[in-house]
Structure formats: C-alpha cells, structure tokens
Amino acid sequence: MINILYCGNDKIFDGILISLLSICKYSKAQLNVFVLTANLTDINTAYKAISQSHINFLENTIKETNSESKITLLDVSDMFREDMINSPNLVNNYTPYTLLRLYVDLIPEIPEKIIYLDTDTMAHDDIQKLYAVDVKKYEYAAALDYLGKIFLHYDYQNAGVLLFNVKKMKETGFLKNVRDYCKYKKMYFPDQTALNSVAKNKKFLSSRFNDQRKFHKDTVIQHFSKSIRWWPIYHTVNIKPWEIEKMHSVYKLHEYDDILQDYQNKKELFIREEVRNNDGN
Question: Which of 196, 209, 12 is closest to 94 using CA atoms?
C-alpha cells in the first residue's frame, strides 16, 4: 500500500485526476489517498471545498487499476480557521490550501508515512521508488528547489513533493513549530519557507523525485512549477499539465500524451455524470 496526500479546493480536481492517472500507469499497487480540503469562502469566494462527487469519481478511477485503492476526503475547515485565521499568509500569491498539509500530525486518519504531492505533479515511473525511501531517522524528505538553491540558500528544498514521517513529526512537535512560523511571519513562499527555516532533521531526495526544470529519462515525478527561462530574453513560465496545448507548444513535451488523453476522456465522463445527476434531482 502507498499512502498519498493532496490538499486543495474544488479547483484541484483536474490536477489530482491527471496526477493519479499518471501514478496508476506506472504502479498497480493499492493506493491509500487522502485529500485535505476546507471551505474558506469567507477569505475568498472561490475557496470552496472539493466535493464528495469529485472524490467518488477519482476513487472509481483508481479502482480501475487496483480494486482495493481508496480515497478519503477530510474537511479541516474548523481546525484550520481556528488556528490560522489571523495569519498574514492567508492572502498571498499562493492559496492558503498549501498550509493544510501542515496539520497532518493532528489528523488521526493520516498514516505514519505518507507522500504529499502538489496537484501539478505527474509520475513517470513507479512511485513506490519514492515511498520506499527510508525516512525513519528524519521528519521528512524533499528535493532541492531548482531556483531556491540558487537565489535563497544552497540547501533550500522544494515542498511540492514531500515524504512525511508523521510519527517522527508527532514526537518532535516539528509541524507545530512550522505552523507557528506561518501564523506570525509573512513570507512569499509561506509553508515552504517555514519548512526550510524550522527543519533540522530533514533528508534530501534526488531531483528525479521532483524534477522541476524539465523531463529526464530517469524522472520519477515531474513537477510543473513556475520556472525561469533565460533565452531569448528572461521570462517566467508556469504551465500546468491540464494546459495541454501549451505543454506541446511551449514545453515541446509529448511524453504524457496518453495520460492526458485519458484525462480528457475521464473529464468528459465526469461532466456527463454530473449533468445526469443534476437533471435527476
């Protein structure tokens, strides 16, 4: 069994669907997926919790590969709001949903070891290779941030792919310290910088587990995060897997075409089912 965690609102459905389809292509293992969500419409009207219908469809999708796979939706609205409502990081270039992963130590359902993935990640190899990394002595493991190691600090890690040792973090109180950091200190990359600032017991993953720059033959997980292009002029690029035309025209990337075609078919099926269900009501 492989434990996997995603966080977000109802806008992350496409990203999770693509990410899980890619994982299922390369692994037939039982997936135990958790999705943390929250209704934060008081902060932004767009911040609606992901729906159970989304989760049901995603679960049925991964069951096509392994019938024992499952997805658990956990709404942490009250916990998050009570603890973080006055944080200066709630209004930021990033949604507050990135902060939800900092509460895994307080959620009884979360297992002792789990992979956290941003929803703009895709697998290109068996994710078991990441899950098998030994983190018994560490609170978490992460790869270096491609830009952060240049512009911020030589050992600055990217938080888009994390292997959490939840048991260890409970023992050390690590995530409570990270949460406190986020509650009081304004940051451009809120929880990522907090993780880097507080961590004293972290493991470094190979970049193949979080390839942020471009696809490589040994890539296990590719992370489509914002990046810099220096040629022909300096500019930033921030293209996501569901932006298929840009994946082709800008990145010249066709490695995932079969997965993205499956995603399009599944998305159309989901829309038809939603229309049918709404008409039935």
Answer: 12
Q: Which two tokens stand for residue 142?
A: 């992460």
Give the whole-angstrom CA distance, residue 128 versus residue 163: 12
* Residue reference for tokens 């390369």: 26
- The first and second tokens of residue 15, run together, are 């990203």
Q: What average pLDDT does this structure show over 45-74?
A: 97
What's the pLDDT at 251? 92
What architecture does CATH give domain 2-225?
Alpha-Beta Complex (3.90)
> Is the sign of the CA dihedral 164, 165, 171, 172 positive or negative?
negative
pLDDT at 143: 98
Are 205 and 130 a contacting pair, CB within 8 Å? yes
pLDDT higher than threshold 90 for residue 246: yes
CB 211 within 8 A of CB 218: no
Secondary structure of 195-215 in the HEC alphabet? Answer: HHHHCCCEEEECHHHCECCCC
Instruction: Tell me the pLDDT tens digit for each residue of 108-157.
Output: 999 999 999 999 999 999 999 999 999 999 999 999 998 777 767 889 99
SS in 3 state form for 30-58?
A: CEEEEEEECCCCCCCCCCCECCHHHHHHH
| Per-residue confidence (pLDDT) for residue 151, from 0 to 100 | 67
Report which of 44, 53, 47, 41 is spatially closest to residue 17, judged by C-alpha positions: 53
User: What's the pLDDT score for residue 236?
Assistant: 77
Q: What are the counts of helices (DSSP H) followed by strands (DSSP E) for the chain?
A: 10, 11
Tokens in use for 115?
């992979």
User: Residue 163's pLDDT band (boundaries 50, 70, 90)?
Assistant: very high
- Structural domain spans, the chain: 2-225
| The amino acid at 97 | Y
